[in-house]
Specification:
The chain is an alpha/beta fold. It is built from 11 helices and 10 strands. Strand 8, helix 9 and strand 9 form a beta-alpha-beta unit. Helix 6 packs across helix 7.
């Protein structure tokens, strides 16, 4: 008997503008729903009756405030889908703040304001990001996730290691890498709802961070790790900062990226094809080559992430990415600056 596997079809956005608009609308929708939520006064996980245990698993508290083994339950009000969804979204907002705190405490990162004017966005950086010769840049996907998160569902239903960037940050710190964690979905101010200058879209946020933080650092060896829509953001960076990608970027490691094109510059694209890997959802063994979905050739090579589900790919491919990252860190970069443009000036827009 033939065994059929479920098929997931991912349709790319029609272009950068359409992708950015979708990401921005998702961000604003989340913000609007949180403001009208009946849980808007609940500020901590304890307010929701939950906490993280020593294994990083979210568990329910008992009446004495002690953690139990009871896992998250979506349905808190039987039959009321709207209430339960609002509860879930409000819980997610609190988890965002929890992860921000963990980036500072456990990840030993500093919160750094970003933007040319108020209101500002912020990112997280290691204390040595300006002086380190090796720099790791982490970019999450689209939707409700914020800096430090790969997948909210995994944070809630699995544990912090599987759903956050903390293991990547720890590895980078142990191996002597500086770290920059972008916050590409923070496009509106949480208090006023105003658009944030320099972070109006995920791509614009990344350009602002690269120009004001990454390009001004002393890093000669830069690795980017990006998930899902983060791959689109990474390709836009390659388009904006061609000479940096030609002379400084040594690795672009993606997890189930949804990018549909590279930078459009022949030299940069050849570099991306040489130094890049896209670990995609697959039932093949971790690291096994995966053919292009539509049978084409070229582009960033695809490899199995060792897991079929999209949100698991960053966690499941992590150890392989660590090997890639260290190899990139040891490789001698070719000093091939493209057209002589300044590496700190974007070629496609003024910020």
């Amino acid at each position: 008997m033939l065994k059929f596997r479920p098929l997931l079809l991912l349709f790319p956005c029609l272009g950068p503008a359409a992708c950015s608009l979708h990401a921005k609308m998702t961000s604003k929708k989340s913000k609007m729903s949180s403001k009208s939520s009946p849980f808007q006064e609940w500020r901590t996980l304890a307010d929701f009756g939950y906490g993280f245990n020593t294994a990083g698993q979210m568990r329910r508290m008992d009446s004495d405030g002690q953690l139990t083994e009871e896992v998250f339950q979506f349905e808190v009000k039987a039959g009321d889908k709207a209430y339960n969804q609002a509860h879930y979204e409000a819980l997610g907002e609190v988890i965002t703040e929890e992860v921000y705190g963990l980036l500072e405490k456990q990840g030993k990162l500093n919160r750094v304001d970003i933007g040319p004017a108020d209101p500002k966005s912020f990112i997280f950086c290691s204390r040595d990001y300006q002086s380190s010769e090796k720099l790791l840049v982490l970019i999450h996907g689209s939707g409700v996730v914020r800096a430090g998160q790969w997948a909210r569902r995994l944070i809630i239903n699995e544990d912090l290691n599987k759903g956050t960037m903390l293991p990547f940050i720890e590895h980078a710190r142990e191996k002597g890498w500086g770290v920059v964690v972008m916050n590409t979905n923070m496009n509106t101010d949480t208090e006023t709802g105003m658009d944030i200058p320099g972070s109006d879209t995920p791509e614009e946020h990344a350009d602002t961070v690269w120009q004001s933080v990454v390009a001004k650092s002393e890093a000669k060896n830069i690795v980017i790790i990006a998930h899902s829509f983060g791959g689109v953001v990474a390709m836009n960076l390659a388009r904006s900062f061609k000479s940096d990608f030609l002379s400084k970027v040594s690795g672009v490691f993606l997890t189930d990226s949804v990018h549909y094109q590279l930078s459009g510059d022949k030299k940069v694209d050849r570099k991306l094809e040489k130094i890049g890997k896209n670990y995609v959802g697959s039932d093949l063994e971790l690291g096994a080559p995966v053919k292009n979905m539509f049978g084409g050739t070229g582009g960033i090579p695809r490899f199995s992430a060792g897991h079929e589900q999209h949100e698991w790919t960053s966690w499941s491919a992590m150890e392989e990415i660590f090997k890639d990252m260290e190899k990139a860190g040891k490789d001698t970069l070719e000093n091939t600056v493209g057209d002589g443009a300044s590496s700190s000036e974007p070629t496609n827009q003024e910020l």
